[in-house]
């Protein structure tokens, strides 16, 4: 089961946030050789998604990674509640969802 963590994304702004991948027991996940994918969707069943740009932070054994969206990507997100998750594939190809939650898109006034 993934760690639940809600996030806030400001519409029309660059988004960059740092996280630490952990197991349900709170053990840090070693990201050496791992691939990270993450998406945000309006609903779980939505066919369209926006992919985050993930990056591992050295040392990879610390489990730290970032998720980023450009201002152009956030501008296209509808304001309100969305869902997101983060999946890590280890070097052997085994996938684990390590994080999920609600992504609230805060509307922009300045355009």
Sequence-ordered SSE layout with sheet pairings:
Layout: E1 3-4, E2 7-10, E3 15-20, E4 35-41, E5 50-51, E6 53-56, E7 64-69, H1 71-75, E8 80-89, E9 95-106
Parallel strand pairs: 1-9, 2-9
Antiparallel strand pairs: 3-7, 4-5, 4-8, 6-7, 8-9
Total of helices: 1
Structural class: mainly beta
The description of the largest β-sheet is: 6 strands, mixed
Total separate domains: 1
Topology, number of strands: 9
Quaternary state of this entry equals: single chain
Shape: globular
Report the average pLDDT across residues.
95
Helix content: under 10%
Q: Quickly name the level 1 CATH class.
A: Mainly Beta
**What is the CATH fold-level name?**
Immunoglobulin-like
CATH homologous superfamily identity? Immunoglobulins
CATH architecture: Sandwich
SSE string, helices as H and strands as E = EEEEEEEHEE
Unreliable stretches (pLDDT < 50, length at least 5) are none
What percentage of amino acids are in beta strands? over 45%
Taking the alpha carbons of the first and last residues, their distance comes to: 39 Å
Radius of gyration: 14 Å
Summarize the model shown.
The protein contains one helix and nine strands. It has one helix at about 70-75, and strands at about 5, 5-10, 15-20, 35-40, 50, 55, 65-70, 80-90, 95-105.
């Amino acid at each position: 089961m993934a760690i639940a963590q809600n996030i806030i994304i400001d519409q029309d702004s660059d988004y960059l946030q740092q996280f630490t991948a952990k197991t349900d027991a709170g053990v840090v996940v070693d990201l050496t050789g791992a691939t990270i994918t993450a998406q945000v969707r309006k609903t779980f069943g939505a066919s369209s998604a926006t992919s985050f740009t993930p990056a591992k932070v050295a040392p990879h054994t610390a489990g730290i990674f970032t998720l980023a969206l450009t201002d152009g990507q956030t501008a296209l997100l509808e304001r309100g509640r969305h869902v997101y998750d983060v999946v890590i594939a280890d070097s052997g190809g085994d996938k684990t969802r390590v994080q999920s939650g609600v992504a609230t898109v805060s509307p922009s006034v300045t355009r």
